[in-house]
Amino acid sequence: MNKNNLRLYLSAALLGLAAFAWQSCSSPAEQAGGLPYLGERQLVQREVDGQQVTDTVYHRIPDFAFINQDSQVVTSLTVQDKVYVTDFFFTTCPTICPKMKSQMLRIYEAFEDDPRVMLLSHTIDPKHDTVAVLRDYADRLQVNSDKWQFVTGEKDSIYSIALQYMVSAMEDEEEPGGFVHSGAFVLVDQNRHVRGIYDGTDPVQIDRLLRDIPTLLPKKKKKDAGKN
Amino acid sequence: MLVKTKFLLYTAGIAALLTLTRCFYSDKQNEGEQLYTQYCANCHMDDGSGLRNLIPPLAGADYLENHRDDLACIIQHGQTGNIVVNGKNYNQGMPGFEHLSKGQITNILNYVQTNFGNKNPRFSIQEVEKQLFKCRHLLEH
Predict the structure, then answer these.
(1) The CATH number of the domain where B43 resides is what?
(2) Quick check: A4 contacting B, CB < 8 Å?
(3) Backbone angles phi, psi at A33, to 5 degrees
(4) Fewest CB within 10 A of the end CB: N or C in chain A?
(5) CB contacts, 8 Å: A92 with chain B
């Protein structure tokens, strides 16, 4: 029994170590207590006062334009200077979406009164999920469209922006509901850099997301935002 | 290199052990819970609370009592259209699970009827069989 316990502790410790190692590998050193910049980066040479300087250009979400549940246009300007969490779903999804939405509601509730944080859910089934369908969905979730935008648009634009967020989303007749998509929540900062990707069906990862969001917000108001 | 291989082997061992433990754990008694987690919890949530006004709760749902005779068919064939649960309207379709056997449906029903604070009478496999007989025409062949 004791031997078993010891083995168990040892295994736990080893797994922990592995997780830690993985974590440190996936978070580059530049974070210095902050969140990493995810995605491809480019090194750009430029000249300052006759000296060669190398800048790192991080992956940035390109401009976009979609339509939300109020028929309003949502663009990159809508999320300007905001930290936002985004995901991809469809309203008739018979699998992971409701769980994702229940976790998204936790974020909604935690930052309901903080205008610096927004939520952006893209439908990957624009054919079915019209503005009216999204309106009904948002109403039934009892959420405010200023805080949580449900957007639809051209299928191709949605699928290509999903790639920019590093989220998989595509049609697949074999899948329940007709689409394959990941349950990822993507955390994006004020400059549209991706700063974290979380499993939107896992409450533990969403706990971490809830802790990570305040670290992206300007310090002076951190107390308010971090209360949850 | 050797250390790495050893570590890998060790990790694989732990994974195998964990998988095995799971197998032993899955005896008949909690088949209902497992099936619930697999087929129902994504929408109705692990605690049967549902999702706001989108997906009806199972916890404390009057529907389970008022529509007791329909429950097996709803699990097997799904449901569309508006339903009223505890006075609230819900209109999100529910997918059916045609491949589930009457035994599996019985276990799911009994899990739902006796968890989340529910204390409804259990189902016998005969009762479920009788209900499924009513909706057998919906089965795809």
Answers:
(1) 1.10.760.10
(2) no
(3) 85, -10
(4) N
(5) 93
Name which of B10, B42, B53 is nearest A99 (Cβ-Cβ). Answer: B42
DSSP state of A39: S
AA identity, residue A180? V
Please give the Cα distance from A124 to A92 (Å, whole number): 11
Neighbours of A33 (CB within 10 A): 5
Three-class secondary structure of residue A185 per DSSP: strand
Q: Answer whether residue B39 is part of any domain.
A: yes
Contacts of B41 in chain A (CB under 8 A): 99
Smallest Cα distance from A35 to chain B, Å: 28
Domain ranges of chain A: 65-225
Please state at what angle helix A203-216 crosses helix A97-110, rounded to 10 degrees. 40
Q: Are strands A117-123 and A83-89 parallel, antiparallel or unpaired?
A: parallel
Q: Using an 8 Å CB-CB cutoff, list chain B residues near A101.
A: 51, 54
Q: What is the three-class DSSP state of A101?
A: helix
Report the gap between the CA of A14 and the closest CA in chain B (Å): 8
* Distance of residue A105 Cα from the nearest chain B Cα, in angstroms: 10
Task: Compute the count of residue pairs across chains A and B with CB atoms less than 8 Å apart.
Answer: 46
Could you give the number of structural domains in chain B? 1
A65-225 maps to CATH 3.40.30.10? yes
pLDDT tens, N- to C-terminus, chain B (141 residues): 566 677 777 777 676 666 655 555 445 558 999 999 999 999 999 999 999 999 999 999 999 999 999 999 999 999 999 999 999 999 999 999 999 999 999 999 999 999 999 999 999 999 999 999 999 888 765
Q: How many CA atoms lie within 13 A of A55 on its CB side?
A: 8
What tokens does A81 get?
A: 């200077």
pTM of the model: 0.77
Measure in Å the smallest separation between the Cα of A99 and chain B Cα atoms. 5
Residue B10 domain-assigned (yes or no):
no
Residue B75 lies in a domain: yes
Regarding beta strands A179-181 and A169-171, do their DSSP bridges make them parallel or antiparallel, or are they unpaired?
A: antiparallel
Provide ipTM, 2 decimals: 0.72
> Which residue in A5, A10, A11, A133 has the most chain B C-beta atoms within 10 A of its own C-beta, making it the best mutation to test that interface?
A11
Distance CA(A184)–CA(B141), nearest Å, equals 37
